[in-house]
Amino acid sequence: MPPDSKVALLSTTDPTGLQDLARALASAGYRIVATRGTAKAVRAAGVACEEIETLTGFSEMLGGRVKTLHPHVFGGILARDEPGDADELSRHGIAPIAVVAVNLYRFESASAKAPERQALEEIDIGGVALLRAAAKNFERVSVLADPALYPAFIAALARGGTTRAERRALAAQAFSTVARYDAAIVAYFARAADSEALPEVLTLALPMQSRLRYGENPWATAAFYHGDSAGLPKQLGGKTLSYNNLLDVDSCLRLIAPIEEPVGFPKSALPGARVFAAIVKHTVPCGLAAADTPSEALTAALGADPISAYGGIVAVSAPIDEACARILKPRFVEVVAAPAFDPAALALFAAKKNLRLLSFEPSVPARLRAGTTLRSALGGVLAERPDPLAPPDEWRVMTDNKPDAALWRDLLFAFGAVRQIKSNAAVVAHHQVTLGICGGQTNRVAAVELACRRSGDAARGAVLATDGYFPFADGIEAAIASGIVAVVAPSGSIRDAEVVEAARRGGIVLVFASRRYFLH
Length: 520
Fold this sequence. Notes:
By secondary structure, the protein is α/β, with parallel strands linked by helices. Helix content is 38%, strand content 18%.
């Protein structure tokens, strides 16, 4: 290309770093051309800048919908570094363009809350086309799709220009940006068509949030990808989160989500606003408690199984105060997650350099439970999300003995916990504190027996919840033999009548739920 090929085209919505980029380009001898708003910002920095109309010969049209879609723009970008292309550009009076810096319209944030007409205006047409064209021609063109890329590009200019490898990497970033943008548009239109249906084609474009030291095992490579960094917990201190930490934090946050009230649950027995604290290890809950204060909930949850809690992940649904920090400081835990940390708590934790501290928005646990879940299987992806139109869970007391308010609260608490434990699962609880947790069993009676055994003598007077129905009466009989006074379980067995009869003979309370909650 001839010497006048040093043309840079700028069209940005994010002003971050724009003026530094413009100064660097000008210092490197580039002729700078920009769309109207970007040109104004560049000139404000004292850098000469032409508007796009000088290339196209047309002013912006249709309220800005059309401004860069022109052969003088795309010809200048797509021309290859070959004599034939150079001759053709010369015949048409087209200036070759060597740098393209574009930020796309903010469709992802706008579409979440804007009316449809306004959201549609945030679908970028020209910007996407510019990025694709520049990335396709990376052999000659440097494309900058994100202000975060400017500093490295400026450094490359200072040493004489970008290398082919650098331009190729920038092209990959541009195509990734376009893919994510298109995925957001697909998701928006899929929601608009039928907000309850999963899409016919699952389009994912998740930016990498972090590279991980290794995967589930040290010989695996791993990274964490997420489409909405704004909704992620923020790390306030400690070592970098690992692959296994992230899995455990997810499990822990789901445990402390608010418990839904089933149909048939008496209003007078509702527990009210309480603080939840949970401890998880290898995605398996070690302890869960609800109390009036964070320190009370934390103490109870840690006390539920103090041996298993060693090296675990802790989450609390309320801010961590100094009292909580004093409880946790002498213990070895990997992560502490909470909506916030008091300054006094942070000061106490400062001595624990490796302890990972995470703050999360209070709505995150409930969103995790209610959102779409993706899992790999057979080299593909399984997707599911709760159906908001499905009938709610309905509870029925099946025995002559009826639960009092305290038993109702314990049953609801235990059932909320057992839903987050691998099937087959059983949970023993008393005073809204777990006493024995058992999951991942291949038969239900074993889950009941192990949960009761882990509870010891504390099982007497406690309640038990299972995630699935009792296929035989032996499960309920094992609970009765351990001193359990109330059980909640889904109905659905062909032997439900036998199970109810066993509960009546044992003199305990039996509540049937209409929903079964598998967790694999």
